[in-house]
Amino acid sequence: CNKATDLDSAITVIIQNTCSILSCDRATLFLVDDFHSELVIRQAVGIKDIRIPLTAGIAGHVYQTGSKLNIPHAYNDSRFNRETDKKTGYYTHSILC
């Protein structure tokens, strides 16, 4: 069992294990900030925090509805929030949320 000593270390372990299990090159863990009504990405490449409204994008849709989504082509989905890709320089191909 891997023991993380702080939140950022725990997020790193969760993301590494998720990528290993799903055989994907990247994963994102959204934290809920109820006080500011935002979803927060704590670990994006080169950026400390990315904050989006609870209702924004696919992550916001899943948060609001509790649904599960498998989207093979992210940019073809009207709910996809392209702003995170712009901030990170990453191109999202597919989403399992």
Topology of this structure?
Layout: H1 7-22, E1 30-33, E2 38-41, E3 50-53, H2 57-65, E4 70-71, H3 83-88, E5 95-96
Antiparallel strand pairs: 1-2, 2-3, 4-5
Structure description:
The mean pLDDT is 88. The longest helix is centred in the first third of the chain and has 16 residues, at 7-22. This protein starts with 6 loop residues before the first helix and ends with a strand. By secondary structure, the chain is an alpha+beta fold. Helix content is 32%, strand content 16%.
How would you concisely characterize the structure shown here?
With 97 residues, the chain is of the alpha+beta class.
Provide the descriptors you would attach to this structure in a database record:
16% strand, alpha+beta, single chain, three-stranded antiparallel beta sheet, 97 residues, 3 helices
The Rg value, from CA coordinates, equals 13 Å
Tally of DSSP helical segments: 3
Strand order of the largest sheet: 1-2-3
Q: What structural class is derived from the secondary structure elements?
A: alpha+beta
The tally of beta strands, per DSSP, is 5
The average pLDDT score comes to 88
Q: Give the helix level as a range of percent.
A: 25-40%
| Broad shape | globular
What sequence of helices (H) and strands (E) makes up the elements?
Answer: HEEEHEHE
